[in-house]
Design a protein that fits this description.
about 650 residues; two-stranded parallel ribbon; 25 helices; about 70% helix
Amino acid sequence: MTSFLIAVSILFLSAVPGALAHKGSLFWERCSQILSITGCIFGIYATVHMLAHPENAALTLQWPLVPGALLAFKMDALSAVFLFPAFLVTAAGSLYGSGYWSVRDKAGSGAWLLFFYPILAGSMMLLLCSNNAILFLLNWELMAISGYFLIITEREKEEAHSAGFTYFVATHTGTLALFGSFALLMMMLPGALSLPAASSLAGDSQQATAVFLLALLGFGFKAGFIPLHIWLPAAHANAPSNVSALMSGVMIKMGIYGIIRITSFFDAPPVWWGHTVLTLGLISAILGVVLAIAQHDIKRLLAYHSVENIGIILLGLGIALIGRSYHNESMIILGLAGALLHVINHGLFKGLLFLSAGSIIHKTGTRTLLKYGGLWKSMPYTGFFFLGGAIAICGLPPLNGFVSEWMVYMGIFSSIHGQMLMGTFAAPGLAMTGGLALLCFAKVFGLSFLGEPRTPLPSTGDSPKSMLFSMGLLFAGCLWIGLAPATLVPFLQKSVEAWTGTPATTPLQALVSAGHISMIAFALLILVAILTAGMKYKTSRQQIPRQPTWGCGYMHAIPRVQYTTSSFAQLISDFFGWALQTEVSLKKPSGIFPVSKSSCTTHTPDVLLDYIIQPIFLKLATVSVKIRSFIQNGIVGFYLLYFLVALCLILILI
């Protein structure tokens, strides 16, 4: 545990040289990045060491936070699941920042980013190992505030401030719910502020239900599942891409960690807990990917895929909770192991995708998909890494997304015998999610890297080496877990045992079989690559005439005749029109020989935010302004009256 605290201390320390880089000093920037990466390396070592020596996983310092609450830390296999991708993505993002958001080009915002980035990362690491309620909430608030400052890194943009405000309101609404949840939890443990052991509390009481519902609300705002996702798309889109990678790959998982940790305290919870989580997961998975398909902004699209993948994680957790209610160990281990493995996998491939998207934005200067095209010619390495992330997020072998979704499928199938209705909906829902994700990334990759350029291609070549190395690091992690998932079996079994509080006897054979499928897929890919290379070598020695692609009557192919984001997704957008409420702006041609240009543009709003929450807040703001103008009317007599009324109320109450 000591090595973990050293790692986190180094992370926090890296914020100091980051702040000193505000005048564009590359020296302080390098110092900050070296310290940050060093802290992450120490952190990965500490996580692995804890798994090998669990007897050293707790540390209580005699430093009182409040009376009765000491500075207590504890790392177990459950927190290690979240720590591993957190350290890895943080390190990759730190290295990536030297080429993407350097103080050399952006002195003020670059130093801002270097200061708050390690604070966000460090607060999440401490949160995962907090062993009492006060320390947990303190780190939760530090994470929330540092996240806000990172979202508004580009402070000159109104859009960034709007995204930051929405995030700030959402996260603190969730924090209020968490105060209530922890207060009720501590009432169940009189005289103690330490978090209870797994399965130490009865789950069938009304108080336990209140703790669960408040935790689901509070942690749900951070996790971003539907309908609590309102802050997530704008925040991810407006933050720098390495921050987006950290927020999507790690920060939203703090909400998942909270739900998993809270539910671990209760033995045999009511079965409706699991059904509630499962239903929320199914809705988030399907609607998240549908909303992603309709987006024109590459980072908003990836943000909605975070909603989708949080839904997949909740599917696994819901299965595990139902299994816990029925004492079905197969459902517990397959469901929870699948969910936890997807936590790791999503952190890796979503971090990879956001870093790849950031490289595209860095070169093209825009987030709009309609302005991309043909980028493979100038950015082949970035294209390769983006393709790898796309394969992983679609759940295809041989990369890591396949093995965790395979585990969730196995959990669903294991439940069908006793819970036929649940399995009947969950399995097709997960299959639909995978199919729609494949459609979405066929659109994104095709529009971005293939076809004719819609705008002039970047003339400076691919991304800097630091950015490419960061993407390569995360891609290597995706490939490792995809090809050798069996290496994680002991790790995942320990994490399931930490959740249930009892030894697991059911082996994770499903993970081994998933690894075999990935190996076969990888071998086939190698074979195809060899055959392709051989054919290319053979044809290179022959004179083969080359002709331009048929361009529909034009001399050569032009961007106008290519698919757009709207036309590619039209079928799905129409089918889910009831949920998307897509707005169409159509300018038809007029006359026999039209003079003016015709056009058709679409915009897909976030129905919950744009049509429900924002109108309510605008109404509240209007009422608040009227109340304020009435109370603060400038008449001294009214102010004296307020004092008199307040004094009378105090006397009555006392």
